[in-house]
Amino acid sequence: MAVLDAAITQNTRADNQYFPDGVPTSYSWYGGSDTTFGNTPPSTFSAVTGWGLVYPEAGVATSVNANAQVQIGDFTTFVLLKSGQWVEVQGQSTDQIAGAHYVADFSGNSSVPWQETTNSDGSATVDSPQSGYNDHFYPSTRGTFAPGSVVGVFVEANMRTTSASAELVASLGADWWASPTAQYVNGFANNPGVGSSNWVKLTTQWQTLYFSSISPQQLAADPPPLIGASTTPPTTSSLLPAVTSVLESSSTGILAAGQTGTLTLNLNEPVTVKNGTPTLTLNDGGTATYAGGSGTDALTFNYKVASGQTTSSLTATGVNLNGAAVTDASGNTTNLPLTGLAQTGPQITGASTATTTPPPSSNQSPPHLHDAWCALWQQYMAAGLGGEGESGQIATGRGQNQPKHEALLANPHH
Question: Count of domains in the chain?
Fold first, then answer.
């Protein structure tokens, strides 16, 4: 799944698929994303913290998680300033993760210590939640900003479990704080909640989790400068399908210089072009422009024969996706160029090739947050995120403008 696809899905309540064990169904965050977009801190506040939760999946025997561990890497919190600038205010590379096993419904703010190890790559490994508890984690130090300067927050972290049999779900969120050292007070006056994301099922492969208080439209207009890596890098088998043939067609047969025609790339699997404009490179120095075919097993390009050329000597040397996101029928996405088309003639045959790094093994470091830039922002300009919360919060209301404290819970001391 592409970066923005995941960020949008994880903050769209209607897309929530999993639920946490031991959390009352009346709690607003039980059902997934619980965020008021446009949530801003009180004008005098100067701090924020991102946080995360891990629970056994509801309806699953907790015994399957007995030997599991959870790994957390590259936890990062950004704030968006009124000036339009994104600023990183918390980063795991300089601010190690803290946390504990809290009672599942946070009653009494009761917790027991967890076992945490800091790995050589900076990630943290912690034991999985005990029965009736969760893993609740957050950076050791709150992020800071000038009062009145912030319009939103974006949190991301790479996560995985070490056990293939584990049934664990995770979520990210954030709280505003009155100051970097403010203490918790009843009613959450010092730390109104920003919100939380959907629940993501952890696997043994690294996944990036996201929380955003910024709407899709705002993200598209002013995205964070550094967006998290997507899931495990694709293997060769998950790249775009092979090009089985390239057919030239026109209503006048073989084309002379200056005439226009169409080249069709036949694929071994349907694809969808989500964004961008692929081009087909030709041996005469020209390019064939994308003409459609999205959602089929063929991509069509229009071209004009250059001076001194005819289609009988035309060579299609490769497809350049030019930042387009092309997804195959299995949902795999890549923006790598396709190459390997070098047969001349009206029918040009060949197979596409593309190289990428293999997926990390179970003991490799998580993908770093600074390694990927999203090419899909504009896709979601018209996207909407739904979901109305119910009562009950972790340690938060739904922001200072819409508090919901019918089921007040003790603060987990982020």
Answer: 2
